[in-house]
Design goal:
The protein has 118 residues and is an alpha+beta fold. The protein is built from 1 helix and 2 strands, in the order ββα.
């Protein structure tokens, strides 16, 4: 049983999950400007996924975020019955911010060059 897919919703629409700064328990850890919404650029299955974008306020390793489903406009407050052997699977694809991605890509190219047989 699928609890929620994101097909049929416009990009940027909040479905099930609020933006990371919505939760009062983690709002102090999250910088202003966090977003959450449907994204059509990548998906595990189908054409849409859910994108959550945030930045922690600093580099302290104990920072965390809580994604809340409380009263979201679309599909709020889901109920999952665990008495019937239900299983919940969440697939996460981490995407580094652009500067880190550039550094990782440059490092991969240099590593590949170094490993090439001469």
């Amino acid at each position: 049983m699928v609890v929620q897919d994101f097909e049929g919703f416009a990009n940027g629409t909040e479905v099930m999950f609020q933006e990371p700064s919505f939760s009062g328990s983690t709002a102090a850890s999250i910088a202003v400007g966090s977003t959450a919404g449907v994204d059509g650029s990548t998906a595990f299955n189908g054409a849409a996924s859910y994108k959550v974008d945030w930045t922690f306020v600093d580099g302290v390793p104990t920072r965390w975020l809580r994604l809340s489903t409380f009263n979201t406009t679309n599909s709020p407050n889901p109920l999952i019955r665990f008495d019937q052997g239900s299983e919940v699977t969440v697939r996460i694809k981490a995407v580094p911010e652009p500067v880190t991605a550039l550094l990782l890509g440059t490092g991969a190219v240099l590593f590949a060059r170094r490993r090439r047989p001469t």
